[in-house]
Design goal:
Shape: globular
Strand content: under 5%
Helix content: 40-55%
Order of helices and strands: HHEEHEHHEEHHHEEHHHHHH
Largest sheet: 3 strands, antiparallel
Length: about 450
Amino acid sequence: MGPTMPPSKKAQSPSSGLGATRGLSPLYREAEAADLSLSLSASFSKAEDEELTSLSWLHESTDLLNSFSHSGLRSVSPLQDPDGHPLPPHSPSSSSPSPDPCDSSPYDLATGANRKPPYSFSCLIFMAIEDAPSKRLPVKDIYGWILEHFPYFASAPTGWKNSVRHNLSLNKCFKKVDKDRSQSIGKGSLWSIDPEYRNNLIQALKKTPYHPYSPGLVTPSTSPPTSPQAYHSPPLWPGSPFLRKNGGVILQVPQGVIQNGARIRSQGLFPVIRPLPICSVGSRTTAIRSALGDYLTQGNIGHPCDSPSPPPSDDLQEDHNYSTAKSPSMPCSSQGPSTLDDDDDIIAVEVGVHREVKSEPQEVPLDSASVSFLSQHARRRGLPWTKNRLRALGDTLPLKKRRSAAAAVEKPPSESDDEEMKEAAGSLLHLAGVRACLNNITNRAAKAAQKEKEQKEALRN
DNA sequence: AAAAACATAAACATCT
DNA sequence: TAGATGTTTATGTTTT
């Protein structure tokens, strides 16, 4: 970027973070996937092969489904081992011989306060601002919010404040609000979230393994989103206005509890921070996510984006300030600039299964999150073509001017939500069908067993 | 290996 | 003037 940049270093894309803290998600994701990802899909295929003659696979699968949905639901609830026994928050001395990916976390689950939170500064700032009633905060209050929710920073080196300011300045997701001189708040300005980039911040939070945006953290809403905006930018974290308006909030963490370095408050906007996934549970969930994901992808859900047409970019970092420009609208996205990647696919399945399991198939509520997630399930990563294009454009402009310049080449969102709603509904219903089928067979098996038992008893008598 | 994402440090300007 | 705030540059680390 800078003209003085060493040639060996690529023009720095000093994107202030939009993504989750690195190093966590990929590690545990991989390990999870490697663990039980085969078990469910294997079960499904086994069913086909054996023509349902054996029911062992079924119980296996059903258990997995249940545990998956439950683990998704009770994201802050007691973690369980594969047998359903509660696990301590973090057990490095786990008997598992294989390396535990969770151990690689820089996070201290036991105290939460000693280690750096698994959120990038941009996520922290975002949460702070979103937590403010007026959705705008002076830096000082952003400091305060971070300190209040992440005690780690109380004893952290003072540089973090510099990083916060650095992020505010450089991340175009954050916008300085012109301060009314009459209502001066003292030094500095108020900072707010640029609505254009809000979705991207949400996506960034989603990429954090413990993000409070996870649909798994919330109860399914029983009514559809009330505003069109909700379809595009569903604020799904517990306590969000959206949720408050549409349903309940699952909060199972006592007030004041510190988890993942976050001080949990029941009334806060981001009161729930997902605990670091314990692998025995996490691997299950990923297994199911993976298996169901494959299942859904194999022609069970058609999506316009599955066609050979160029896949949309879902690079969240396209919204970074320094040299990149706002990410473009996606031809198949109803969610604004960014689309979903594999992580989001995971969430999509999580939502679907969770809802399906919790309610009758016909009662599956379709909120914006599940709609978007499911509809984009099979989407694949695309080349961030606009990123390069816009970067080339932006590099020649002063920092803040790049934003407007980039915006000038933006295209408005074009995809209708209806199509995705239909697909999502199909996906959910399909999941519901899978589950119903499983239940059906389970019931029949149980009945058969019962009958057999009764016959034996009758014979004995 | 290169690129990208993110963190951190620091210099400097501006404002209160 | 001091300190807070805001901007920018430089560079290191880690992940993709």
